[in-house]
Each structure stands twice: as C-alpha cells, then as structure tokens.
HIT family protein
Amino acid sequence: MSDDCIFCQIVAGEIPSHTVYEDDHVFAFLDVNPLAPGHTLVIPRDHHERLNDLPDDTADALYAAIHDLVPAAEAAVDAPASNVGFNNGEESGQEVPHVHGHVVPRFADDGGSPIHAVGGAAPDLDDDEMADIAEDIAAAQD
Ligand code: 5GP
Ligand code: ZN
C-alpha cells in the first residue's frame, strides 16, 4: 500500500466507495465523477503505477475482472455499448498513479466521443515509416 494513494485508501476501506467487485487481486468501484451512469474503475489491490508494472498474475486477474464487469456495467444501466480504457502515464492524462481501467457505459446520442478522440494531432506516416515502427514494437517485446 502507498499511504498517500487515494485508490490504496479505497481498497483498505479508509475512503468509502460504491464497491461493485473484489477478489484477491482486484477491486472495482464506481467513479466518483462519472462520465456516464455505471462508470466503473477496475484496479489491482496492490499499488502499481502503470500497466507495465503489473506482475503477470495480477494483469491476468485484472483483465478477467474487466471481462466480467463490462457486460455487468452495461446491463446494470441498460447501456448498449461501452468504452474501456486506461490512461497509462501522466502525459496520457493519468491523474491517479495507481493502475485503473475505466469502463464507461455508452448510449445512442449521448454526446460522447469514440476512443480515437484521445490522441493529439494525427501523424502523417508513410508505409515505410509504419513498417519501421511495427518492427521496433515487435523487437521491443520481452
Ligand atoms: P485518471 O484521469 O487518473 O485516469 O482517472 C482517475 C479517476 O478517478 C477520475 O475519473 C476520478 O473521477 C476518479 N476518482 C478520483 N478520486 C476518486 C475517489 O476518491 N473516489 C472515486 N470513486 N473515484 C475517484
Ligand atoms: Zn495505490
């Protein structure tokens, strides 16, 4: 636990939350400033700042919980769709430095945007540049 982390304090029960799921690795609760009814945050119990900091078993458990919570959140608020995503690092907009997945139920004509809206100005990349980037990503994996 990180003493000054809001989400660690929520997992410890020191800050109240509307809890929707918990197991040995994962905790999930409603976002206090929801973008939609049913906006749910899914987090590891242990304090890790970024997705790539998660041990494999925690990452597996986190995705398994998201797999179940997406249809549950949609059903609870009668939403036909949802956006699911992580802000991963300060420059991406991550404000709470404890890994958390957002599940945001979506409705027809709700005025929101697709996840494509998160990027900055779109880069103009030719096919050779795309191939180089793909090669570098493939090579950078453990
Ligand atoms: P981020 O920008 O880091 O991806 O998102 C952090 C999210 O945590 C925000 O959507 C914010 O509303 C939510 N949040 C921040 N503090 C609290 C809190 O004390 N309780 C709950 N339930 N959500 C919080
Ligand atoms: Zn934490």
